[in-house]
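User: Please run a holo structure prediction.
Assistant: Happy to. Please share the sequence and the ligand.
User: Here you go; the ligand is zinc ion.
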Amino acid sequence: MQLRVLRGRLGPSRMPCRLPGAVILDGSVGYNGTNRTDDVVAIQSSLNSVLAAMGGPGEALAEDGIAGPKTQNAILRFQEHWVPWRDSKIEPDKGTLHALNRAVGSSLAAAVPVMATAGPTPVGAPKPPKPPAAPYFTFEDKQAIMQAGIRLGMVRTVWLPAAYRAALSAVRIATRANAHAQRLPAPKVAREDEDRLAFLLIAKHFKLHEKDAAAARAGAQRVETMIRRMCITLVNRVGKPIPGIAPAPEIFVSLWRTPAKVAGHPGYTYLGGAWQRHKMNDKIQGADLSGKVSPDYLDRIYLTPVFDQSHDDFRSHILVHELAHFIGDMAGGWTLDDLGYANEPAYLTNSSKQRLHNADAYACLVREAGFGTTRAALGAQVKASVLGKGPVVHLPEQPVLPAFASGTPDPYAYPSGGV
Ligand SMILES: [Zn+2]
């Protein structure tokens, strides 16, 4: 393996002129990178020096200066071991490069004792080389990185599929509610008419009334559109991949540290999510956030370590809440915003229009449709009465596929630059 070659080079007579562990780049390397030949060779050489167990490529890369799929995959594999983002790109003086330089140091450290213990140092011999610098990540960091990986695994396998099923239930309800609303003002329907009951469920979350027919029609229409968009966004991201259709890019990023600006928040969607990226015409792909521990791309949803500190219903509520921000509204020009969390007094005084713009109202609705009133309240950390006057849902509705076919290409998916 490449490491053996490197160890040979480290012999006393031939010190290498350029250790791979001290790479300085002129431009970026990897997916969508500048990929100058010198830079690519330096990265390929460095990656080859990292032990497979520490995120190295395992099978040595050709050091040919071409950033092809093998090199990009090796960068991705390295990032999976060392940093909390996955863009298959190494940029000058940024986190992945720092981590790579440290990883090479650590891989060398694993090799160095073999030479260092060869015998006692003779008097007058040159001083032994300094021990390599401490790893870039502390033990606590590595634990946090592992925890972030576990969190993402749980999101993929447990909470997101559950959120999707809840969203499907909500679509069914929203569709019936909208059908009822579009008939308003209408002659009396039966008290227990199912479309009407569905409308009453939507109405309590968004403060709609049959008597204000125009607002009820517009509101129910809006809710149905939003929940459908949530389902479309999720459909290619949960469950089994659909043959012939590329899986949609990962939208959840699991952070191993909490950025200072969002301290205390279990999750966040930067600048209102994907629709903002659309509006910015792809000119801005990431943005600085003070204290950031990853680039904050607009097409991702971030979960912080705070996410782990509550019960499953709360975590499920957070996912749906962030999804609401994420889907936003491209056509209408507004996002689903934070106009009061359900466990804050401001939520109770939200007007109907504010509720229709409030991510937490959608989270409460979707969870009530999927899991019943008690668990929706538990997730929102409120009493059931806070959800509003209206029908109480005791049991989850049987999820029914919405009208669009499973496998519909996601119109809101963007090339994410990796993953
Ligand atoms: Zn929010």
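Residues 2-137 form one domain.
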